[in-house]
Amino acid sequence: MRIYASFRKTMASSFAVCRLHMRGRASLAKCLQKTDAFLHRSIGTDVVIARAEATRSDESDEKNGRKSLHTLHMERQEQAERSVLISCQSSTNEKKFLKYLSKHGEINKYFFYESYGVYAVVEFANQESVTSLLEGVAIPGGSHESAVPFKSRLLSLRNLGSVDSSNQLSGRQCQPQTTIPINELIKRLSREESIDKQISSLTEAYQLTEENSRLRFLVCSLLKDIATAYFPECTIKPFGSSVNGFGKLGCDLDMLLDLDSITGRNVKLPKSGLSLEYQMKRANSERAVTQSILSVIGECVDQFGPGCVGVQKILNARCPLVRFAHQPSGFQCDLTANNRVAMKSTELLYLYGELDPRVRSLVFTVRCWARAHGVTSSIPGAWITNFSLTVMVLFFLQKRTPPIIPTLDHLRDLAGPGDKTVIEGNDCTFVSDFNKIQLQSNTETLEQLLGEFFEFYATFPFSRMSINIRKGKEQNKPEVAPLHIQNPFETSLNVSKNVNASQLDRFVALCQESAWLLQQSETSTPRGGGAGGEGAPTPWGLATLLLPSQVAGIKSRKKRRREPASERIKGLLESLKNKNQLKKS
Ligand code: GTP
Ligand code: MG
Hints:
Distance between the termini: 44 Å
Structural class: alpha+beta
Helix content: 40-55%
Number of strands: 13
Strand order of the largest sheet: 5-6-9-8-7
Strand content: 5-15%
CATH topology of the domain at 183-200 and 356-404 and 439-523: Poly(a)-polymerase, middle domain
Radius of gyration: 26 Å
Oligomer: single chain
CATH architecture of the domain at 183-200 and 356-404 and 439-523: Orthogonal Bundle
Shape: globular
CATH class of the domain at 183-200 and 356-404 and 439-523: Mainly Alpha
Bound molecules: guanosine-5'-triphosphate, magnesium ion
Number of helices: 19
């Protein structure tokens, strides 16, 4: 995650109380009952009714194939607690391996993948199986180095004395955990027969798989085992692109150490008589508390965390974090704490992505296009971030006629009493019940939307206007910055403050170029070697837009005579010319 605003004050997250030690649907229901009881005590009946409504709407959403992020989190966390991660040998025999493990109980799901060796994720049906398995696991010895005896669910499979014959291995398949290289993607897209299909194919190739999502939650659960040594009631939750629906295979793993689930915050002292409270160390500010907690947990991750390497404590950032690589999963991890607004942004992005399938497809396509041309980068700098880019896509979709997604203000107006959330004085309320959201019937195709997206931002008045998804309308810029995108929840902040003028110019130039390319018949229609054709297909449509050589092509093409562009693009070029002349005079 990017290093951005710090979030200081505490706001108890009521629903996190019972998330520990849950098993299956029965315990999910039990947990919700307990949560309701808790809410009844601490907040009041309205919230209980709201929560019951939310549970009902979650059920009906599930019937429609949609899950709230809250439900998804609970399910995945619970699966992760019942799972172990095992480093295998490349000669591991799948059948024997499963037979050996199933001595401890039924296995629900397992898969293999490669990351510095072969690993297996094994999810048991019951948590008792994990306990039973761990009872028989040995602490390594015999080497010249000593081991820190911190026991985790990251294990190594040893196979002494017997050698498996190679034909027994053939059944084992490794699940990919990284995206296909861009040139392979370009080839794949060039074989598709329409731009719509290219966009769907890109989304399918890049989005997180079920297995990758499970692995992300498992890594959070393994880290939680370290943090619970100090804070037994804490949870570690993924946020950002790992769960907001816009994550690409290989994206970083943003994690939040959630201490709101620690009980006792809402215990009210009686007005008279005896009562007890904990003695606790105090610091000057919430930020200082966050820094000290992350410092200690970071140290433990560094010293004790199996597979965690390159730990850096970046505690003076606006949002303090611990960054490290988790080698067994291959994830680059950022651990933060007390970062509730980011979790709310994640929920919002997830909700928008669930509303209409075109949202995710367009975000994936634009993110991939931006990365292919170096508009975004994994290195922090003056580049547009993926988060900003996503907000730009959402804003564009709000501006369609009729709009494809509603404004954030509208989502706030639809919120029920249980949705009310105020974090550090910022109103982060929006509806959580998908069924309350009425969408308008916009039938634009992905191809149309992609072309229109490029035209929209090729002609957007960035010098005067700010992008605002709360209102769904551009607003006058409140401050000087080349690109101004209002932070949806901390509305006085600009999420793209880091972007400099030359990066914005590059983005606009690429939008112009891409809009133009999509209007050229030679690039917008399938060419030789298309669907069903043999040999290397000629890039066309979206595949052309992803070719890095297109960037270099911009300058040379400007000198060439173009095919007639749309009136809007012509108008834009005209206005740019006039602007340049004005600047010179
Ligand atoms: P990737 O580039 O795939 O990692 O996308 P990401 O969405 O995970 O972005 P990133 O890792 O940079 O940030 C993680 C999450 O933090 C985002 O999804 C947002 O929820 C939040 N976030 C990131 N940058 C900002 C920002 O400038 N302002 C606010 N309010 N939230 C941000
Ligand atoms: Mg991220």
